[in-house]
Write a structure and sequence with these properties.
- By secondary structure, the chain is mainly β.
- It has a single domain (2-143), classed as Sandwich (Immunoglobulin-like), CATH 2.60.40.10.
- Helix content is 0%, strand content 67%.
- It contains no helices and nine strands.
- The protein has strands at 2-14, 21-26, 29-35, 45-58, 66-75, 81-91, 97-109, 113-122, 128-143.
- The strands form two sheets. A five-stranded mixed beta sheet has the order 3-9-8-5-6, with no helix packed on it.
- Strand 1 (2-14) and strand 2 form a beta hairpin.
- The relative contact order is 0.28.
């Protein structure tokens, strides 16, 4: 199987009648407001948001059943892996292209900067090969939240 593209979005939809894919709110950058009193430098915090990783693949030999094993890793600006996931799919024979959607809950961050969602594919049952590196720029606005008495 050959990776064609991947994208991060908030939501996607597949039209059951025409099999058309629609992507909504594609993510390249996020600005977040964080309470300065509740974080310390270098500690991981989770942005409470839901995302989808949507990928499109072509199948070189559709005469047989194909297996796709994926690994995703969210990497911070200091190249530290903050979270990871894996998925595997069996694609029936006769199928020449394949789309997959992976739901992601929460976005961990350690500091402001460019994060990457790295998508890797297992090659010939062996090691994983990087097929996509999706950047997400995180901008953090710190604020001291006052509690009124």
């Amino acid at each position: 199987m050959k990776h064609v593209w991947s994208i991060i979005c908030q939501q996607s939809s597949i039209d059951s009648e025409k099999n058309l894919l629609s992507l909504f709110t594609c993510i390249e950058e996020m600005s977040v407001l964080i309470d300065k009193d509740k974080v310390s430098d270098g500690k991981k915090i989770i942005i409470p948001a839901e995302f989808q990783l949507v990928s499109f693949w072509t199948i070189e030999d559709s005469s047989k059943e194909n297996n796709l094993e994926l690994k995703g890793e969210l990497v911070d600006p200091d190249n530290q892996i903050l979270s990871s996931f894996s998925n595997s799919f069996v694609v029936k024979s006769g199928v020449s292209r394949f789309r997959n959607r992976t739901n992601i809950q929460g976005f961990p961050v350690t500091r402001e900067g460019r994060y990457h969602l790295n998508v890797s594919q297992k090659v010939n049952g062996g090691s994983y090969e990087l097929v996509a590196e999706l950047p997400v720029d995180i901008k953090i606005n710190y604020q001291i939240m006052k509690i009124s008495k």
